[in-house]
């Protein structure tokens, strides 16, 4: 009897949470740079951890983060939990400001409005203040508060990490 119950639960689980892939991360990077760019790696050193914890509210569960750099433009593919599941977003930073943010993979059951341009366009031109906050306010979406917070954290992290790699040129 227990075996049938477990099968029923396991059969139900994949449909219990959404998995919407709006764009594969590799396709996002190719689109941003109009072709292939070699990934680079930023190691999450002990010196970076306190600021990352301040921005994200927790430590990253990774030892390194990939990024792509060409002519001062940096693309990041980062993840943060919305309410219960990871949200994967691509962020492009140019001249210390967000050029573009895009929800790539959305796994939550609600709040997916954060993928639409009416929301993501708010981030364009945002920079990081000395307090590691965005220099402009981001309007929330009713019913998507935690997804909005997740994308805001991702954008702050992308700006901070861009500062750390010194992306004003291709020398890094």
Structural features, described:
By secondary structure, this protein is α+β, with helices and mostly antiparallel strands. The protein has helices at residues 2-16, 25-33, 49-56, 117-120, 145-165, and strands spanning 20-21, 39-43, 64-70, 73-81, 86-94, 97-106. It has one domain (19-165). It is globular and about 35 Å long.
Summarize the structure in short:
The protein is built from five helices and six strands. With 172 residues, it is α+β, with helices and mostly antiparallel strands.
Average of per-residue pLDDT values? 89
Q: Report how far the terminal alpha carbons are from each other.
A: 60 Å
Strand content: 15-25%
The SSE string, one letter per element, is HEHEHEEEEHH
What gyration radius follows from the Cα positions, in whole Å?
A: 17 Å
Record the SSE blueprint.
Layout: H1 2-16, E1 20-21, H2 25-33, E2 39-43, H3 49-56, E3 64-70, E4 73-81, E5 86-94, E6 97-106, H4 117-120, H5 145-165
Antiparallel strand pairs: 1-6, 2-3, 3-4, 4-5, 5-6
Describe this protein with a few key phrases.
single chain; 172 residues; alpha+beta; six-stranded antiparallel beta sheet; 5 helices
């Amino acid at each position: 009897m227990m075996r049938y119950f477990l099968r029923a639960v396991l059969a139900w689980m994949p449909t219990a949470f959404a998995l919407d892939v709006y764009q594969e991360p590799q396709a996002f990077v190719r689109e941003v740079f109009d072709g292939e760019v070699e990934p680079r790696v930023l190691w999450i050193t002990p010196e970076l951890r306190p600021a990352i914890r301040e921005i994200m509210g927790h430590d990253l569960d990774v030892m390194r983060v990939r990024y792509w750099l060409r002519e001062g433009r940096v693309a990041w593919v980062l993840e943060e939990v919305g309410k219960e599941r990871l949200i994967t977003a691509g962020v492009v930073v140019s001249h210390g400001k967000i050029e573009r943010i895009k929800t790539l993979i959305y796994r939550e059951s609600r709040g997916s409005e954060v993928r639409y341009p009416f929301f993501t366009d708010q981030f364009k031109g945002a920079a990081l203040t000395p307090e590691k906050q965005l220099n402009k306010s981001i309007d929330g979406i009713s019913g998507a508060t935690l997804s909005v917070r997740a994308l805001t954290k991702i954008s702050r992290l992308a700006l901070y990490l861009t500062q750390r790699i010194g992306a004003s040129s291709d020398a890094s």
